[in-house]
Each structure stands twice: as structure tokens, then as C-alpha cells.
Amino acid sequence: MRGVVVKSTGSWYQVKNQEGHLIQCRIKGKFRLDGIKHTNPIAVGDFVEYEVEDNNEQNTAVIHQIYDRKNYIIRKSSNLSKQTHIIASNIDQALLVAALVQPQTSLGFIDRFIMTAEAYHIPTIVVFNKSDLYEGGLEDILNETMSIYQNIGYTCFETSVISGKNTDKLKSILKNKTSLVAGHSGVGKSSLLNHISPGLNLKTGDISNFSQKGTHTTTFAEMFDLSFGGHIIDTPGIKEFGIVDFNESEISHYFKEMRPYITQCRFNNCKHLNEPGCAVKEALVNGKIAQERFDSYMNILTKKDYYE
Q1: Tens digit of each residue's pLDDT (9 = 90 or more) over 182-191
Q2: Same domain, yes or no, for 99 and 211?
Q3: Domain span at residue 281?
Q4: How many domains does the chain have?
Q5: Which residues contact 239 (CB under 8 A, 6 or more apart)?
Q6: Beta-sheet strands, E only, within 250-292
Q7: In 49-136, which ranges are continuous DSSP H helix?
Q8: In 67-216, where do the E strands start and end?
Q9: Which range is least confidently modeled, 60-64, 85-89, 158-162, 284-288?
Q10: Are 47 and 210 in contact (CB under 8 A)?
Q11: 121, HSE (Cβ side, Cα atoms, 13 Å)
């Protein structure tokens, strides 16, 4: 029988079959995919084949096949680990929920997430939540930050659960699509999703007074049906986002604004550091590439400030 993985809890997977019933499944043996060692060989969003086990009062099943993925998004499982973690698969789009305060999302984090999504051909929308807290100078910072991403073609807007700002716009973007929802703990992902689809009843948490960072409320990635059509994959709050297996020469290709200039560089293998005849550096000087984005590129390239 065929179904889609809607929840992963370690060694067990919850699969929704074509009739809408949920089946508890496990895997038999080891799955090794793409020649890469993953912490989770099966991810939420995977389409699988399973067989119900015989003489089984609990009606559990065994997954014996994983269908080819159209895409997935992946990160290093931790700073020192050589293993990777597949966050989710078969995604129509990614929604990155960020905030300027309580807690602050760094531009470096946003850029690493966007870069990874670009590599796997997943469109990304950046939502700056908690806009009701942005007073005084923060409003100017928000506008400047959003303009960086809007100018290079990303959909980017602000939301607020308190005021309801742009929540209807968010619903229209998510409607009838499978969307990965990610962000740091505490940025309000769950509250925002509960607001636009109250039946979800996702658990929400408070900000730690000590660290001003969010406390984890989502333990495992899980797929939910939206009341107005479509699916969201809610993910645990991501503290770090480690880039996986990119050649240094490839990194600039996943920065949209650099692509028009890469082929104009004097050297085919230009890393846009101090090479002569670098069209990317010229575009930076001429204001066609934002300094903040170029700084993120350099940090990724040189592995400085790798985790934030």
C-alpha cells in the first residue's frame, strides 16, 4: 500500500494512506540514500510503500520502498557531526519565519537557508513575524532588510498575530500547496499557523528571559492539513543551519543576484575574493549586490560565522 509520511519520531513513522487513515510504520533493515549518511533515511513528505505486519494486534506496518523525491531540504545535524538531517521532502515551497527581536534572526541564517533551498529548487518566502513589536528605528531596519530580499526576487513581507497584519496574504500563499515552515524557536511559527488555521492547535512556547531565545515546542517534523486547503510541514525550531556538501565554486551560483555576473568574470573558477577582472566584485562596488548578502557569501565560503 502507498502513503505519505506525515510524522517521524525516531524509529517510527506515521504514514497517511490514500484513504486518509494513519498507520504506524517502521523500517526493516537500513536505507542508505544518495550515498550520504543521513540521521533519518525517511523524512516527512516521503511517499512510501508499506505492508501491514501479520499477526499484529496493533495494526503496524513495515516500509519497504521509498519513492524518488522531487526535492528535499537538508542540513548538518550538528556543528561537529558528519551526518546530515533531511528536514522534509517533496515540498512546493519553503516559508522561513524570521524576527528582528525576541529572538533576532540573523541575516546569515536567512541566507544559508535560502541558499540551501535554491540548491534544491525550492522557492522560499521570508516572513518577518511580530511586526507589532517593531517600533521606532526597528521599522526602518525591517524595511531595509525586506528590501534586500525583495530586490533580488524573493517574496518577503511582515506579519503579526496580534494585529492580524498580512495573515490573509499568508493564507493565500499557503493555500493548496505543501509548504515547509521553518525558523528559530520563538519566532512565532506555531502561533502564526494556529492563527490562520485554528484547528491545528499547535503547541506554542515562551521566550526564555535569560537568553531571549525561544524554547523548543516542536520536537519532530510533522505534516498537517490546512483548513483552507494545502499542507504545512511544521519543523522543530532550528538553532543552527549547517550547509551540506557544496563545492566552493558552486556557492555563488545559489545567490540569485550574483548569477548574471558570474559568467563575466575573467576566470571561470573565480571565487570573487581578490581575483582580477571579477565582475561580481565590480557589481558589489556599483551597488548592484547588497553588501550584507556578499558578507554572507564570504562567511559561507570561508566557513566563518558558520553557525548562528
Answers
A1: 998 889 998 9
A2: yes
A3: 251-302
A4: 3
A5: 184, 185
A6: none
A7: 107-119
A8: 72-76, 84-89, 93-98, 124-128, 155-158, 178-182
A9: 85-89
A10: no
A11: 4
